[in-house]
Structures are given as C-alpha cells and as structure tokens.
Amino acid sequence: MTEFSGRVVRPKDAPLFTARGGEQVFRSTLTAETTGITAVSGGWYRVAPGVTNHLDMHPDRDEIYFIHRGTATIFMDGQPMAMAAGDTVVVPHGVDHYITAGPEEALELFYLFAPAAAPHPERPAGKYPVVEFKPA
Question: Is 102 within the bounds of a domain?
Fold first, then answer.
C-alpha cells in the first residue's frame, strides 16, 4: 500500500456505479486504496426522487449518513424517521434499514462505515437482497 500524508480524492479517483437504471448511484471515495486510511470507509450515494432503496443491514459495522441534499424517510427496524439536508443519521450495526427519497429531488449523502467495509459489504444471505451495481 502507498504511504499517504494527506490528499484530495477527486471523482476520477474512484469509479461511479449505478443500479436499477440509474435510480441509485454511488462512488466509494474513502477507501484504503484512495486514502491509505483503514479505520473507516465511505463515499457518495444518490437515490432518485421517490425511489426506495433495498433493505440492508451490516452485522459488524456502524453506518453514518451526512445528508447533503434532498429529503427522505429512513426506516430503521421498521421505524420511519425523516431526514433532510444538514442532518447526520447514525445506523448502528445489526439494524435493518432502507431509505425512501422524497418526491421532489434526489437524495444525496455521504456515507461512512466504521470499521471500514469493502465497497460492497457482505450481508447475511436470504433477507437482504444483493443489489448489482454496475460501472457507469
């Protein structure tokens, strides 16, 4: 691994992935490969207006969202909570969650995993669907 003393990660440094015809888009910009940091990982995620993403759960890592643009409802263990630009949302490890973006504009957020996760974290089989993201 390359030693880093700090850097700016640009969009071109990490591939863009899409799913469901572009309704979901993400770019993992905070990885060991792009920054040399191994304690956390993260990136940018966009959900089109009115779209509900997939049910998800991370058994051994917490996930944090920093909402950049838009509004949405996040469901954690089935409980709805409103979120909007400027909010920070904490999803503890082991908690089922999914998001429905507001109808007016796309939801854009930065997500952070602690401890670090692979760009496509492993999920328990069965209940949690695998969403295939393809390079844009």
Answer: yes
